[in-house]
Input
Amino acid sequence: LIHIQGTNTLDPEIPTWAKATKEAGYATASIGKWHLSSDPTLHGFDLNVGGSRSGSPPKGYFPPHGKIKGLSKVDENEYLTDTLTSKAIKFIEEKSNTPWLLYLTHFAVHTPIQAKETDKKHFEKKPPGKLHKDKTMAAMIKSVDDGIGEIISTLNSLRIKQNTVIIFYSDNGGYGPATSMRPLKGYKGTYYEGGIRVPFFVNWPNIVRPGSECDTPITAVDLYPTICEITGGKIPKEHELDGVSLIPLLKGNKIRERALYWHFPAYLQSYERYNEQPDPLFRARPCGVIRKGKWKLIEYFEDGRTELFDLENDISESKNLAKDRPGMASTLRSSLSEWRNQIKAPVPTEWNPKFDKEAEQRAIAELLKRKRGKK
Output
């Protein structure tokens, strides 16, 4: 199929939770990965450190970082994660007597897989686990953990920890060639659970009960109304949101049952060196996804094929129930179609005139042969 052309830039005219929070009187900072435009200050942030169009550190994790905003003057050999942590702490210290919002988005553990030698040595004598064997990636995670610990220590030393809400989450699943998401199927770039189910936790003194857990499915778009409710930011009445506030869940209550949707009218290339990919050419092909309750359906636009999974009893998505439960598959597929029509989501329908099915099959066979040879 000829995929739907998209954009890699967020229109500065679109309302954001950063704009709403800033207008509510908060100092706002974006430190780290941005990946939505050339500069997050166009979207409601007072301060930008490291934010650009790039989704990975443009020059790697060690200086020099070129002309990237806020990173041009960095100590020699200072690790990027440490730099961002230091910048975050400086912002918190400077704004500790006023309302502030910090959006700290570490580039780690994004490629390139690079870590400090001291952190790599920490894992040298540790035996590899059944799922995780990449010591450099482990060292990268350690640096993020250490940085979060430093920030929490700063909040405590400034005596503002009790007045601070901490939200932690990831934008996608693990990097396939370096780690495993098992028992989840898939990895970053796929629409199986290993690609879209991520860690999410909130520390909110006197509101979120320590150690509490919640099994209600949520999605990152819920953060917009949630953050605005916390900060008092106003959402424009004409600005219709897909997400809902998570405040009831954080207080131990419930929200209305709803479906979650994903729409991907394009192709995402495969990893070059990863033997466990079921599709050697693409991590994701054009598709739509709906999750409602325990049920999840994936609809592929190329051939109309569907996959239906019972996540309550099959978290690994090992058994496609589309033929066994045709009624459920049909209901979810209809809901998915209605949602696409409602938001006017474009679906690719035009076949590429240069597409050669036999050539695709030969390429797949060659890639599989090459990967088998590397095992």
